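sry for the spam today, last one i promise. struct tokens for design, 278 residues
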């Protein structure tokens, strides 16, 4: 009887998990970036709010209203030769507490020769006992450019909420011209709140972020460092292998978001999505 009950509970859990996928590409046609075939499934959607003279902007919407354990979302985007594409999210994504397996987020971005791709989602907020595994795969041609940021917030401190326990796994792989130039995997699990409090980890910070700028060199680094006096949190920036990377840590999400906007504004001539400015 216990086995039957366990199987029934597992089946119910699986049947109530959200799944979503978006796959599309954009191409340059007569000097204008246009969307090609679009595939959407489940609770994930992408909308293109307004025509633009140059480039194209897309906004992701999760109609499930958030992410919980066992959910899976897959995104695959290609910017064709010479195309320009900026992507963001309609709001901060929330990852809620749930039993069972971790939620899975798989993001694959490709930019062909001369293309530019900006991946600028709003924050990902992890609630206490949330579990999520994210994978970001980036495939760039030698002459492609990329502006990418990710912000992760461990609990909503403004509402007195903290993420004390859970799991966060973040795997990034960047290939340029077919060559792997950057790879890292971050894992925080168990007593995450206690680990973030350690001086060598986050010194009590509850928000972390990364910005990736391709191509990037010491000139980009120096341009960003000129704004160092305005940063509200900790920001470190360096360049190697033909790209630049900035790391962020702050005591709250608002401070980190302001620092990220300052860095992105100096890193590239690409305008931030209007949703970031609201």
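last one done:
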């Amino acid at each position: 009887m216990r086995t039957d009950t366990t199987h029934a509970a597992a089946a119910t859990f699986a049947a109530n998990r959200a799944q979503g996928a978006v796959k599309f590409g954009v191409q340059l046609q007569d000097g204008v970036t246009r969307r090609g075939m679009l595939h959407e499934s489940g609770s994930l959607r992408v909308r293109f709010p307004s025509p633009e003279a140059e480039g194209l902007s897309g906004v992701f919407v999760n109609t499930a209203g958030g992410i919980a354990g066992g959910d899976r979302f897959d995104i695959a985007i290609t910017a064709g030769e010479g195309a320009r594409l900026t992507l963001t999210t309609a709001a901060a994504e929330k990852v809620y507490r749930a039993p069972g397996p971790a939620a899975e987020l798989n993001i694959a971005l490709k930019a062909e020769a001369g293309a530019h791709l900006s991946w600028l989602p709003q924050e990902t907020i992890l609630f206490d006992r949330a579990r999520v595994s994210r994978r970001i795969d980036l495939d760039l041609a030698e002459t492609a450019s990329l502006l990418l940021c990710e912000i992760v917030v461990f609990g909503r401190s403004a509402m007195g909420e903290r993420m004390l326990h859970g799991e966060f796994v973040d795997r990034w792989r960047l290939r340029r011209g077919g060559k792997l130039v950057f790879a890292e995997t971050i894992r925080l699990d168990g007593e995450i709140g206690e680990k973030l409090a350690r001086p060598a980890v986050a010194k009590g910070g509850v928000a972390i972020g990364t910005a990736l700028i391709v191509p990037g060199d010491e000139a980009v680094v120096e341009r960003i460092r000129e704004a160092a006096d305005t940063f509200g949190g900790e920001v470190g920036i360096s360049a190697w292998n033909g790209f630049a990377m900035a790391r962020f840590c702050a005591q709250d999400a608002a401070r980190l978001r302001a620092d990220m906007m300052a860095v992105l504004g100096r890193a590239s001539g690409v305008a931030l999505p209007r949703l970031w400015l609201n």
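The radius of gyration is 19 Å. ok im logging off now
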